[in-house]
Predict the 3D structure of the following.
Amino acid sequence: MPVPKTLGIETEYGIVHRGVDDPNPISASSLLINAYLSRRSQPGVGPGSPRVGWDFVDETPHNDIRGFSHIGSMAPEVETHLVNAVLTNGARYYVDHAHPELSTPECADAMSALRHDRAGELILIESMAAANEVLPAGEELVVYKNNSDGKGNSYGCHENYLMDRATSFAEIVQHATTHFVTRQVFTGAGKVGCEAPWMPEGSIGFQLTQRADFFEEEVGLETTLKRPIINTRDEPHADPLLYRRLHVIVGDANLCEVATLLKLGTTAIILAMVEEGFMDPALQISDPVRALQAVSFDTGLGQPLLLADGRTATAVDLQWELLEQAQKFTLERGTELTGGPVADLVLLRWEDVLTSLEADPSELVGVVDWVTKKHLLDGLAERHGLGPGDARLAALDLQYHDLRPERSLFARVGAEALVDVPDAVAAMDAPPDDTRAYFRGRCLQKWPADIVAANWDSMVFDLGRQTLRRVPMMEPTRGTREHVGTLLDECETVAELLGRLST
């Protein structure tokens, strides 16, 4: 049966160190994050201390849902020597390979995750300001919320959803794949050109997504090579007898807030339908990897996809069918486990966006990223006489994702906002109050000096001369404001907190 769709986003940001001859992205990423942490730990600036590090004890990134684990799984996937901090909003801010990465706290619905994703953008903007204050004259760190460097390298924006452990993995593969292949029509961030090695150079002028070029398998464990549509990493970060975490690597990093809401909200509903056995098996796509790329290359949205039963349908057609099933599902089963009122909003916007994609995609400027970017690039190309393949178009593509407000093409659009700026600013420091992230964040705010380390499912406290105390947090729906808010308000010390937790 469905479990509450606790969810979150992990975003790797592109980074450029301007003004140096031989830039090192790992050093640049470390400087970026450390500058933010230093600024936030100054007296009177931000609550608590963000210097609490990440606890790697439960990191097993090569455990496979299919029942095996790779030898030597702790490296290089887990880079324990790089900066890796836990923030007072419950998020994780760290260097991942050669990129700064921010993982939102666990969220109970798509709107909460969107709010913390926006907070993540503001954290990166403040990080740039803090880093550039200490760099020598003529140097600058610039951060981009995108997924490709245009040179054959891609970095991810990963989603995470808790599911019922009892759900057949084969059912997830069969049914969720269709959604991941076709949702690109509203989740794609858009990209000039193509980096798929098997495509002729110059054959694709613009496509829906930045990530489709880099996927090679339908199912697999990897996230950086031979990327799969369905990832098999088995790290629930929760009670493993009750939960599995579906680690989704096939999405783009979005700037349009409606796109982010739909990316998360539609997927949460689809996965609940998979758990309930509510999905129509007739919607299975014959060759998902090639279909993923075919959809991305098709800006006209008319490419027929071959289904396993021999029928054909476009990505928009299949999204309409998924929406109709989702509407029926929520009518019969309710939305309590998929976001409540937020799920109702998702269904409404899902229908609105599909209607516009069919009628006139230009109606979605400021709503869907690929439409917005294409509109800007087409306008610039027309005004300046830029032909297909002009290097200036690729430069403008990158500028769309520039997080510097004064340089960002996206910032000029006036895109539809679902999150008020004050709410996003508040979420930079405050955790969501309806998941275990509330307990983590409040403890970090109140007792930073008494916390040794933290991760998703536990915190380690230091009581001085006594043995370190680990507090498990295996249930994501506990540790909420309702559950522990009064307790945290009343306790003056960590010792008092732990004493009352143990009674």
Observations:
- Residues 43-50, 73-78 have pLDDT under 50 and may be disordered.
- Residues 432-501 form one domain.
- DSSP finds 14 helices and 20 strands in the chain.
- The radius of gyration is 22 Å.
